[in-house]
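Students often ask why inverse folding is considered easier than folding. One informal answer: many sequences map to the same fold, so there is more than one right answer. In these notes we will look at a single instance of the problem. The structure comes first.
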């Protein structure tokens, strides 16, 4: 569908094909070298050594990626903090091959966080996990976002309501890459729901419905995709205050 390709382009990991437009950070053009030092990327499928322990993998990442001026005590302290926040304390001395899939995903996130980045890209971090594992991953990401002041850019497949409510901003795109919404989600997705409710022929969010599922129904995504309606929704967004805010 292009979600991974978009992340690769934003992260500067896409070399093939033609890329147009500008990528800015905090309103300034992105400088590739600086951005690479300040960002992390968690692939959907990892390529980690199964024979190393969770702790060894974290410390190895820190040894390679933190500045040389970082003391051993500070590196160990960061590893301790991440082990606790990612709920890996019980398995930190287990080999990677012996941990669960959800724990393995949290290890992958921790490895990137050991570089002390300001931005981390997550490519479908909940795909392949059971409900409990997915929830634990997203809760940890949400906590780290605010506690460590790290921005997470995440693609996610069919989030449940509680996970969807954890997102602060949403990029909703139609087939072909045009924007339908880009802005804050609001508490319990209230800002997103209010925007979509303002569109013609859109009824209220049904009681107990997941806004993530409802928004896809509203825009006509999936089977029976209406290109005419999608183009109309894009045009409406480009005339909205949300688009002006996004440009700023």
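Output (designed amino acids):
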């Amino acid at each position: 569908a292009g979600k991974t390709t978009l992340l690769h382009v934003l992260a500067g990991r896409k070399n093939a094909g033609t890329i147009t437009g500008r990528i800015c950070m905090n309103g300034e053009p992105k400088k590739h070298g600086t951005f690479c030092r300040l960002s992390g990327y968690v692939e959907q499928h990892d390529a980690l050594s199964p024979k190393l322990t969770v702790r060894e993998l974290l410390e190895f990442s820190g040894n390679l990626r933190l500045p040389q001026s970082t003391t051993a005590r500070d590196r160990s302290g960061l590893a301790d903090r991440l082990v606790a926040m990612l709920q890996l304390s019980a398995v930190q001395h287990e080999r990677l091959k012996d941990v669960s899939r959800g724990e393995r995903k949290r290890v992958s996130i921790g490895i990137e966080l050991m570089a002390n980045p300001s931005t981390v890209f997550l490519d479908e971090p909940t795909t392949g996990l059971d409900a409990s594992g997915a929830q634990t991953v997203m809760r940890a990401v949400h906590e780290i976002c605010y506690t460590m002041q790290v921005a997470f850019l995440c693609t996610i497949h069919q989030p449940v309501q509680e996970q969807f409510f954890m997102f602060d901003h949403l990029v909703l795109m139609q087939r072909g890459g045009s924007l339908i919404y880009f802005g804050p989600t609001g508490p319990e997705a209230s800002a997103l729901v209010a925007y979509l409710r303002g569109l013609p022929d859109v009824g209220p969010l049904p009681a107990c419905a997941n806004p993530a599922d409802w928004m896809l129904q509203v825009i006509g995504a999936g089977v029976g995709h209406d290109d005419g309606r999608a183009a109309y929704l894009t045009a409406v967004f480009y005339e909205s205050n949300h688009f002006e805010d996004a440009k700023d």
